[in-house]
Design a protein that fits this description.
Keywords: GTP-binding, Nucleotide-binding, Repeat, Ribosome biogenesis. With 163 residues, this protein is an alpha/beta fold. Helix content is 33%, strand content 23%. The protein is built from 5 helices and 6 strands. A hairpin with a 2-residue loop joins strand 2 (40-47) and strand 3 (50-57). The radius of gyration is 14 Å and the shape is globular. The protein binds guanosine-5'-diphosphate and magnesium ion. Residues 15-16, 28, 37, 58 line the site of magnesium ion.
Length: 163
């Protein structure tokens, strides 16, 4: 069965890095500076024996502070509508922010399956953020390092039963 997984979360948490890793090509732009990627990007993902469509919800990085909250809300709602599974990503080194809590509130209300990923999870600097992520009420967070390719087995284990 084919399914669609959308990666959502605030700018700079590592969404495009994970998208690129799953797709295996540089389809989504990655940059230290917010403002590079735009729009929703789709790619064909491969994770173990799973094949699925992955959507990178960019298109927020060029928003001003004034428009960011509303745009994130609309984009997240769109992503939830088109996706069978939402992968909600936070930055484990930063921990849970008020913006993350806003995302979590939207996602808890929607019926799509939600997977919670605490990214940038390599190293001890991420320990506290991973624990904080439990408080979002979205189940057990996957400790992920999109950049280093760590935690992909746990990601697989959470996607597998939903596929
Ligand atoms: P996006 O805005 O959510 O799409 O985030 P990007 O994928 O563009 O990544 C933002 C920054 O975080 C880039 O500098 C990435 O190299 C970095 N990054 C992404 N994943 C990781 C990770 O697992 N660990 C660390 N330390 N940095 C990461
Ligand atoms: Mg991006």
């Amino acid at each position: 069965m084919s399914f669609t997984l959308a990666i959502v979360g605030r700018p700079n948490v590592g969404k495009s890095t994970l998208f690129n890793r799953l797709v295996g090509k540089k389809l989504a732009l990655v940059d230290d500076q917010p403002g590079v990627t735009r729009d929703l990007r789709e790619g064909e993902a491969k994770l173990g024996d799973l094949r699925f469509t992955v959507v990178d919800s960019a298109g927020l990085e060029d928003a001003t502070d004034d428009s960011l909250q509303g745009r994130m809300r609309r984009l997240t709602e769109r992503a939830v509508e088109m996706a069978d599974i939402c992968l909600f990503m936070i930055d484990a080194r930063v921990g849970v922010t008020p913006t993350d809590e806003m995302f979590a509130e939207i996602l808890r209300k929607k019926s799509a399956h939600v997977i919670l990923a605490a990214n940038k999870g390599e190293g001890a600097a991420a320990d506290a953020g991973v624990i904080e992520a439990y408080a979002l009420g979205l189940g057990e967070p996957i400790r992920l390092s999109a950049e280093h390719g760590e935690g992909l087995n746990d990601l697989y284990s959470q996607i597998m039963p939903l596929a």
